[in-house]
Amino acid sequence: MSEKSNNKKKILFVCSANLQRSKTGEDYFSSITDEYIFQSAGTNLKICAKEGTNPITEELVIWADTILVMETKHESIINSHTQEKYNHKIIVLDIPDIYKYYQNELISILKERVTPHFENLSKNDD
Predict the structure, then answer these.
(1) Which terminus of the chain, N or C, has less C-beta within 10 A?
(2) How many structural domains are present in the chain?
(3) Which CATH number is 107's domain given?
(4) pTM of the model
């Protein structure tokens, strides 16, 4: 079974503080499928430290097959700290910081913007 989990695509959700948007993405998609491995992180290291959330690291960026950032500023932060080495992994979702954790509207937007990028992500049959 560990062989199978090693072959799963790894998806990293990124927002500013890892409190609302990226955490919702990780938790929601983890709850509907086990065909991918999800993690989330924030780009604002001070807020992440204060709130006890997961800060972005180059190790996480390397770990991820795909990085789903909420805004272009998150893409810029990752690129500026990694000399754009991982830009090919980044998809900008264009989701503003106006939603609360697991808010219905946020989940709807995440489903609409994330599922086209991945097979089986919208299937809820099993």
Answers:
(1) N
(2) 1
(3) 3.40.50.2300
(4) 0.91
